[in-house]
Design goal:
It contains 3 helices and 10 strands, in the order E-E-H-E-H-E-E-E-H-E-E-E-E. The protein has 177 residues and is α/β, with parallel strands linked by helices. The strands form 2 sheets. A 6-stranded mixed β-sheet has the order 5-4-3-6-7-8, with helices on both faces. The chain has a 4-stranded antiparallel β-sheet with strand order 1-2-10-9.
């Protein structure tokens, strides 16, 4: 599908399934190499990262664990700039290598808040892995260790990313027209 309708907006193909699959595989290869000999805890940020996390974790061949947290800062197509913690972390992460899996880093405010919360729990290290990053939208400095794509400041859906809860199931990523 070249174009899709999600709610009141039309989106056109931006990143194909094949492009996404190839970049996720490259990221997994780098993580496997970088974290060899460690047992990282992958922390997927719900809801958007669930497809990315599932595809990535299937390519990880080192011993690891996975957990899920939920944070939110979006309403519709805009970041609110306010972070709400919806579901907290239950695992003990003290002394662990934590790899935060995020679908998109836009302003960086949500990730900064999550990293702050995690640092207070004394992990050995925190690494950030994001499917997409919008460098021109970042409002804070972040050390993003792994990412698949830098994208312009466009609103996107698909591959877990949504528009008011819809469009997550699209197998590719689409940008608003």
């Amino acid at each position: 599908m070249e174009n899709v309708q999600v709610k009141d907006k039309t989106f056109s193909i931006f990143l194909t399934e094949e492009q996404i699959k190839a970049r996720v595989q490259e990221m997994a290869t780098k993580i496997n190499k970088d974290l060899a000999g460690k047992r990282p805890l992958f922390m997927a940020v719900l809801n958007g990262s669930f497809i990315f996390a599932a595809d990535l974790i299937r390519q990880i061949d080192i011993p690891c664990d996975i957990t899920f947290v939920r944070m939110a800062s979006y309403i519709g197509t805009q970041s609110t700039g306010r972070v709400k913690e919806l579901i907290g972390l239950n695992e003990v992460i003290e002394g662990r290598t934590v790899v935060v899996l995020e679908d998109i880093i836009d302003t960086g405010l949500t990730m900064r808040e999550l990293v702050s919360i995690l640092k207070a729990k004394h992990p050995a290290e925190i690494r950030i892995a994001s499917l997409v990053v919008k460098p021109d939208s970042l409002k804070v400095e972040l050390d993003i260790n792994y990412h698949c794509f830098d994208i312009p400041n466009k609103f996107i859906v698909g591959y877990g990313l949504d528009y008011d809860g819809e469009g997550r199931n699209l197998p590719a990523i689409y940008a608003v027209v």
